[in-house]
Design brief:
The protein contains 10 helices and 5 strands, in the order ααααβαβαβααβαβα. The chain is of the alpha/beta class and 222 residues long. The chain has 2 domains: 97 residues, Methyltransferase, Methionine Synthase (B12-binding Domains), Chain A, domain 1 (Orthogonal Bundle); 122 residues, Cobalamin-binding domain (Rossmann fold), CATH 3.40.50.280. Strand 4, helix 9 and strand 5 form a beta-alpha-beta unit. The protein starts with a helix and ends with a helix. The structure holds CO-5-methoxybenzimidazolylcobamide.
Length: 222
């Protein structure tokens, strides 16, 4: 049983999605996260253990390596895909309430902005960190963030922007959210933003990468 969790951790860490996948070369022909998660569930391993002992530590390793420039976006995307294949099978347990999540994280790319690769990575990593995700997609205005908060009171909100022309929309979104629910914690991220901008618009935290985003979320949960 321990062995299968170790194998799953390795599959997610190195981005092995399923048995057919030729990537990464050192795991060619072996089961990927798809098969290993199936087997773990069939063996009766609690989904919470699968999450906490394989997926979360795997993504923590991935995030650390990315922060240290030991791996790059393509590897992180493969790990995110491998984790997605596993999460897909664990989702029914989340939804049935069998798995305790740390809370809800609402995320979206702000109004006018269609870039979603970074946002998706952050969402995946935070989901791997044990949070429920409400992904509003791209081109999201303050009205949709407020609507989502009405449905998920107390959720943490994440805003992503990749353009200098759309980062300015973050200010209006932050003030509308804070007006509606002043205690809401708001994290921002994306290439053109930084801590100084975060303070200026009244958001709570700027995360330069998914690992820092997960660390912030963990701090909020502790
Ligand atoms: Co666009 N684009 N793009 N683009 N694009 C950039 C951003 C640009 C820097 C390219 C350039 O000129 N060198 C430039 C912006 C310039 C600026 O504003 N200063 C640009 C431009 C100008 C445009 C268009 C205006 C081009 C045009 O049509 N004339 C147009 C705008 C469309 C729109 O949004 N309205 C446009 C369109 C596109 C595509 C659709 C073709 C495509 C997006 C596809 C998609 O996302 N599905 C695209 C792409 C791919 C890029 C580049 C090449 C790559 C972006 C990316 O995915 N990076 C980009 C140039 C570049 O970055 N090298 C560029 C990888 C991703 C993992 O990183 O998103 O930064 P990133 O996310 C990071 C961190 O920022 C952080 O974590 C992630 C992982 O480390 N992070 C968060 C992100 N969000 C976070 C949220 C958090 C925490 C951390 O908490 C909530």
């Amino acid at each position: 049983m321990e062995n299968i969790l170790e194998k799953l951790l390795e599959a997610v860490e190195f981005g092995k999605v399923d048995q057919k996948s030729p990537y990464p070369p050192q795991l060619k022909g072996l089961d990927g996260s798809h098969e290993l998660t199936k087997s773990a569930i069939a063996l009766g391993i609690n989904p919470q253990r699968i999450l906490e002992e394989a997926l979360i530590p795997a993504m923590a390793r991935v995030g650390k390596k990315f922060s240290e420039n030991k791996i790059f976006v393509p590897q992180m995307l493969m790990s995110a895909r491998a984790m997605g294949a596993s999460m897909f099978q664990l989702k029914p347990f989340f939804n049935s309430g069998d798995i305790k999540t740390k809370g809800t994280f609402i995320i979206g790319t702000v109004k006018g902005d269609l870039h979603d690769i970074g946002k998706n990575l952050v969402a995946m990593m935070i989901e791997g960190g044990g949070w429920s995700i409400v992904d509003l997609g791209v081109d999201v205005g303050s009205d949709r963030f407020v609507e989502a908060l009405k449905n998920h009171p107390g959720a943490v909100v994440g805003l992503s922007a990749l353009l200098t022309t759309t980062m300015v929309n973050m200010g209006e979104i932050v003030s509308t959210i804070k007006e509606f629910a002043p205690d809401t914690k708001i994290m921002i991220g994306g290439a053109p933003v930084n801590t100084e901008f975060c303070m200026k618009i009244g958001a709570d935290f700027y995360a330069p990468d998914p690992q820092k985003a997960v660390e912030y979320m963990n701090k909020l949960a502790s």
